[in-house]
Amino acid sequence: MLVQVFVLNQVHLFGFVSPVVYLLFVYDYPTSQNRSVLLSIGFVFGIILDILTDSLAFNTLSLLIVTYFRPYILGFIFGIATEQKSFKFSDTTLIQRMSYLGLLVLIHQAVFFISEGMSSSNGWLITKKIITTSLVSFILMLLLLSLFSKQKK
Question: Which of 59, 103, 135, 148 is the most buried (most CB within 10 A)?
Answer without folding.
Answer: 59
